[in-house]
Write a structure and sequence with these properties.
Elements: E1 15-19, H1 36-50, E2 54-58, H2 75-85, E3 89-91, H3 98-105, E4 112-114, H4 129-136, E5 141-144, H5 155-159, E6 166-169, H6 171-183, E7 191-195, H7 200-211, E8 216-219, H8 221-230, H9 245-257, E9 261-263, E10 267-271, E11 280-283, E12 292-296, H10 298-310, E13 313-317, H11 330-340, E14 347-350, H12 353-361, E15 370-371, H13 375-382, H14 388-391
Parallel strand pairs: 1-2, 1-5, 2-4, 3-4, 5-6, 7-8, 7-13, 8-9, 13-14, 14-15
Antiparallel strand pairs: 10-11, 10-12
Length: 394
């Protein structure tokens, strides 16, 4: 991949449009609940400012459906960014228009502006040419540092790029490409992939692409229910995709042929509902009628952790159960501890919102080699797909 970096470009006195991913959770009081994504963008922003560039930041937040919505304003993000940078951040009251143009034109060397939520305009998600041209008019240099949106062909990630003289990837984008790209190349073995979450249909592309690369695959979460049911298990009222059972059987046959060990849960934590005060372990495939599987059981966690402990390369995406409910969190939290405690020198990569949240909640984030900021983007990258937001930078 021949993608230029900021260090290769002259940015002094120039407007550098940085597409960032500031789609962060907000508190009820309109503060930033988790500033991880803002912090991740700081190295790129600081490089532009320290070299006398004029930083024009742009992001989406939430799903405002193409029109202004105060609940999805980037104002609280601008406040937090200013605190982290230790300098003023000029916030435009719209993504494009006279107000945005004035904020950008008033910028001086070493200053930073933040455009209002890009998705307040229907042209962003529609990749509208006029909207893209307007965004491009705010830029002398285009820099994409939003890996989390690289799988979307939107105006700010794709459409505007051809109208800007020079383009490059930010430091976070380059880090994501480096670590996720490493998983698709030569890796130290054993290579173990841990996949959880709700749906086989969401992950089948990744499962199949990784089949040729991994030595073992550990499958948990509700997607494991579909595999267990495909093998004739009884899952009670558990969430599963009955229309994907044939797909699950076909995948298991492919794995068998490729001599890749697919490890499914041997026991599950069952309860009548996610709101139950507690659950109890049952053998996998023997969930009582009227109950549902909501986490992997202690035997499964032990088996998964043992295999993780033997690995030299580990990729994890997706929770092992409904970890947002305390009685059903142990499988996911235990997995986070296992990945963080992998053998010395192992490369550990965690991608996807829920897995990342679990790693942070269990206090082991600093022990992971790379935590990806892109859930859907990291999965599509590992499927072998060409992401539009990266392809346009080449």
């Amino acid at each position: 991949m021949s993608i230029r970096t900021l260090t290769e470009l002259a940015i002094e006195g120039r407007r550098v449009f940085i597409r960032v991913d500031f789609n962060v959770p907000l508190t009820p009081a309109r503060g930033v609940a988790d500033d991880t994504r803002i912090r991740e963008a700081l190295p790129t922003v600081r490089q532009v400012l320290s070299r006398g560039g004029r930083a024009v930041l742009a992001s989406h937040l939430g799903r405002p459906k193409g029109k202004p919505d105060p609940k999805s304003s980037l104002e609280p993000v601008g406040v937090r960014l200013a605190e982290l940078l230790g300098q003023e951040v000029m916030l435009a009251d719209e993504p494009v228009g006279d107000g945005a143009r004035k904020v950008v034109s008033d910028l001086r060397d070493g200053q930073v502006a933040l455009l209002e939520n890009l998705r307040w305009h229907p042209g962003e998600e529609a990749n509208d040419e006029q909207f893209a041209r307007t965004l491009a008019s705010y830029a002398d240099v285009y820099c994409n540092d939003a890996f989390g949106t690289a799988h979307r062909a939107h105006a700010s990630t794709c459409g505007m790029v051809k109208y800007v003289g020079e383009k490059c990837a930010g430091l976070l984008m380059l880090k994501e490409i480096k670590f996720l790209g490493r998983l698709l190349g030569e890796v130290e073995r054993p290579f173990v992939a841990i996949l959880g979450g709700a749906k086989v249909s969401d992950k089948i592309g990744v499962l199949e692409n990784l089949l040729a690369r991994v030595d073992r695959m550990l499958v948990g979460g509700a997607m494991a229910n579909t595999f267990l049911a495909a093998r004739g298990g009884e899952l009670g009222t558990s969430l599963l995709e009955t229309d994907k059972m044939a797909l699950a059987r076909a995948f298991l046959a492919k794995a068998d042929k490729a001599k890749v060990e697919v490890v499914l849960p041997s026991d599950l934590i069952a309860a009548p509902s996610p709101d139950a005060p507690s659950g109890h372990p049952v053998p996998a495939g023997k969930v009582p009628a009227g109950e549902m599987a909501l986490d992997i059981g202690p035997q499964s966690l032990h088996a998964f952790s043992t295999r993780v402990g033997e690995a030299r390369t580990i990729f994890w995406n997706g929770p092992m159960g409904m970890f947002e409910k305390a009685p059903f969190a142990e499988g996911t939290m235990g997995m986070a501890r296992a990945v963080a405690g992998a053998r010395r020198g192992a490369v550990t990569v965690v991608g996807g919102g829920d897995s990342v949240a679990a790693v942070h909640a269990s206090g082991v984030a600093d022990k992971i080699t790379h935590i990806s900021t892109g859930g859907g983007a990291s999965l599509e990258f590992l499927e072998g797909k060409k992401l539009p937001g990266i392809a346009v930078l080449e």
